[in-house]
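Quick one: examine the sequence and fold tokens given here and explain what the tokens say about the fold. Here goes:
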Amino acid sequence: MKRIALLLCIVLMALSMTGCTRGYHYDQFDVEKEGNVDVIVIARKSIMSNREESETRYYSLASGDRICLSEPFEPDPATFYTIPNGCFKSYNDRDRNKVLNRLDHMALKDEAGNQVPVSETHARIFQHIAELEHDMFHIRLIETGNQTFVYLELNVNLWTPCCLYWYDRDADAMVLLHEWDEEEVIGLRLRNITLAGQDKSN
């Protein structure tokens, strides 16, 4: 048991020292022309990400999973909804060797914790979320500027993927904009978000 614990500590230290995490590579692009959305995140304290303290970070995102640092900005007014964890039930698909999800029920809560009606658009988003792999938690819908985004975190070994999706109403599809490690999205500023719908890599 001690050998296993020691081996795990060595692996964690190695990953930390080599920067084997998301978010160390930044891209170059014309933010004014190509930027989809600007994002504010809380980069949480994390051994795996080699962060000793939490900090606020600002990014600009573009299609093709491109990301660059941004100057601080004020986010657009937005409404945040929480999807209770019990809405989705994860299970092991032994044939495919994957952790999958099934939709148990639909529920939404506002920032005050009050239950709110689930619209037709929300219902379609629930169906798409259920198609994702891995255990999910901290699932939120963010509505701003007549656009809907999905933020969620995944339970994956050795790191915590924090995923931001945009719901493309025309295509009825969730487009993955970016995936961080232990960085929680807390604010958005829209740019040319419809460009994300032209990205065929998602």
Observations:
- Residues 4-23 have pLDDT under 50 and may be disordered.
